[in-house]
Amino acid sequence: MKIRELIIQNCDNTENKGNGLIIHTGNVSEPVETPELFSYLDFLSEEPSRRIWNSDDYRMILTEIDGKITVYEHVRLANYRIQLLDLQEEYGEKQESDLNELADVFAFVSYEHRNNTRKSGVPYISHPMDVASILIKEDAPSELIFAGLLHDIVEDTDVDLVTIRRRYGPAVGDYVEAVTEPAELRQAAEGDKAQTWKERKQYTIKRIGRASSEIRLLACADKLANIRDLISDIKQDGDDFWSKFNAPKDEQEWYYRSMLEAFTTGPQNIADTRAYRDYKDCVDELF
């Protein structure tokens, strides 16, 4: 059994302890079998009352003591190779194409973002993975899923659009370009991103409002992944977390709600997608 299946089926309580530690607890009626990618720690176990497993890949520890199971999940230390395996499995269920290209895109993005982190301190690769997962659930074409992994790479690394097009083709390159701020705006923001924040966001709103449904879906997946992280970070760190951004909360609300309108303007609107509905729910929850 996979660890996620074990958690879903048996754990009825989850606590976020902060600093990336999540603890799942529950009860089992039958002895637990060793989950995939876990090792049984016989030297720490005292069968049958106490049994302990460890997974370096998942950064998890599983204990079973008198029928009660506890899973200690160190989220911020997670090995993203496992996320790739999960993504491959999900992707494979929805696409018939070769998974090697997905793995290549992931490896490329993971390497190029290796020095980047989210505002919460989490390795940046977690965000492109989230965006790609959202697109997979929408049955998006392969090129759009690849663009989901690559969407921030031009703005945040030294990789340029020429490289993207050469490696992954013109369609992927066009998708990435469509959600990338133009060079002149990026250059203007190099000194002080806060000063150019409103101008850059106005550009994005206007551009997405004229974009195709595929590009809108890509942008929506990005915004959905961002706002989900933001909701989680605010719950953990409180309103002080807003100070990490280049604009205050009221300006952020303006931007997130303006994007709602941009996604649903004209015949290319994506109002009927799961990503848009989830994004709207998150905006209403946060603001």
UniProtKB/TrEMBL annotation:
InterPro entries: HD/PDEase_dom, MESH1. It comes from Methanococcoides vulcani. Coiled coil: none annotated. The lineage of its organism: Archaea, Methanobacteriati, Methanobacteriota, Stenosarchaea group, Methanomicrobia. This is HD domain-containing protein. Residues 120-236 form the HD/PDEase domain. PANTHER family: GUANOSINE-3',5'-BIS(DIPHOSPHATE) 3'-PYROPHOSPHOHYDROLASE MESH1. Pfam families: HD_4. It comes from the Archaea. One of its GO terms (molecular function) is guanosine-3',5'-bis(diphosphate) 3'-diphosphatase activity. SMART domains: HDc (SM00471).
